Amino acid sequence: MQCFDFQRERKLRVNSTLRSMLSENVLRPEHLIKPLFIHLENSCELLPQLPNSMVFSLNGLLSHIEYLMKKGIRGVNLYPKIPTVEKDNLATQALNPEGVIPQAIKLIKANFPECLILPDVALDPYTSHGHDGILDKNGNILNDDSVEIMAKQSIIFADAGADMLAPSDMFDGRTRSIRLALDAAGHHYVGIIAYAAKYASAFYNPFRAALGNSALKKLDKRSYQIEPSSSRQALDKILIDLNEGADIVMIKPAGHYLDIVAKARQMTNKPIAVFQVSGECAMIKIAAEAGLIDEHNAVYEQLISMRRAGADLIFTYYADLLF
């Protein structure tokens, strides 16, 4: 009998049942949040830039929510598509209590009260210049003025029935300001999922095109979003947002920043979310359409890697593909 000086680790992998039983991480529908775009037009529009996505009318939105709920996907992240003529330098429409997002929140809650609604809180869909905040005459971000508007926007969304708010701006002090505003308005149990580590990424362009901002694809947001080369700033910002009252912290994009997810997981027991952004999804879609990869398997591999790194929740346009 021949003697071997190595271990046969494949014994744990040759049987499919055993592989499943020993799986260290799982991916379930309730781990996924679907981003949705909504406008006040009567029609729904396909978004060729994004997989499984369209701009929904309010009527069309309900049927899609029902479809998601049947798949076990119980959370949605809402974005408005605002007509260009309604955008201005001061993001006026962001504070419209009858705007598309407050209307959508009320409609979803009236028909699907168990659906978790997490509207985006930022000013870029409403500004003519495309920045997440308002600008002074020299084009510089007015941090505190922008935060004040977003705190008011947060109350409007909470009044409409939002479960959690997702401020995605990366401005200083916004988590604390929103928490204080919510508490003062009696919304003590409306949570905040703070975009604590949002990077100035090249992978946001399909999203901007979907919102009608394709002309702004080279917009420079590095004065408030984090440089891709930095990690310590991201970890510092995560701790700041947690101290200011964030209930969940977001790391965005997901796939290229799993090192930040893993480090954040070691720093806190609070829930961590990641966002598989539009460009990440578009790359999979384009490669799959070219016959280069299997779309389903590629999506699963990316999403399970996010769970493996320590993410509790995953925002992805591919939420309804796997289940």
What does this protein look like?
The chain contains ten helices and ten strands. It has helices spanning about 15-20, 60-70, 100-110, 145-160, 175-185, 205-210, 230-245, 260-265, 280-290, 295-310, and strands at about 30-40, 45, 55, 75-80, 115-120, 165, 190-200, 250, 270-275, 315. Helix 4 (about 145-160) links the parallel strand 5 and strand 6 (about 165). It is globular, with a radius of gyration of 21 Å. It starts with 15 loop residues before the first helix and ends in a 7-residue tail after the last strand. The model has no long low-confidence stretch (mean pLDDT about 95).
What are the main properties of this structure?
eight-stranded parallel β-barrel; 10 helices
End-to-end span in angstroms? 49 Å
The major sheet is characterized as: 8 strands, parallel, barrel
Poorly predicted runs are: none
The number of helical elements comes to 10
User: Compute the gyration radius: what is it?
Assistant: 21 Å
Amount of helix: 25-40%
Mean pLDDT: 94
Summarize the helix and strand pattern as letters: HEEEHEHEHEHEHHEHEHHE
